[in-house]
Design brief:
Blueprint: E1 4-8, H1 14-23, E2 27-31, H2 35-42, H3 53-60, E3 64-66
């Protein structure tokens, strides 16, 4: 089994889960429609109010891959889909 995962939606739920997967030695491919957020994530900067998220994000960057389209990772075996807009406010 490959230790590669795909996360669609890197917001309130997706980004912390992605970082947690990377901490467990998995490689994660992430996609989000918010291109500004992705640009910031690539620099290790998050706008989330999550304890130590910027430090953890920076540590995770070597095993995190941000993609521009779903087609880029459609061949992955293990797929995780997280969509944070289903959480009611």
């Amino acid at each position: 089994m490959l230790n590669e995962y795909w996360v669609y939606g890197l917001g309130l739920l997706g980004l912390p889960c992605t970082v947690a997967l990377v901490q467990k030695a998995h490689t994660v491919y992430g996609f989000d429609v918010n291109k500004q957020a992705i640009d910031n994530y690539k620099k290790g900067i998050s706008n989330l109010y999550e304890l130590d998220i910027n430090r953890l994000l920076k540590e995770a960057l070597p095993r995190m891959h941000f993609v521009d389209s779903i087609a880029e990772v459609v061949s992955l075996i293990d797929i995780m889909s997280l969509k944070d807009d289903i959480i009611s406010e």
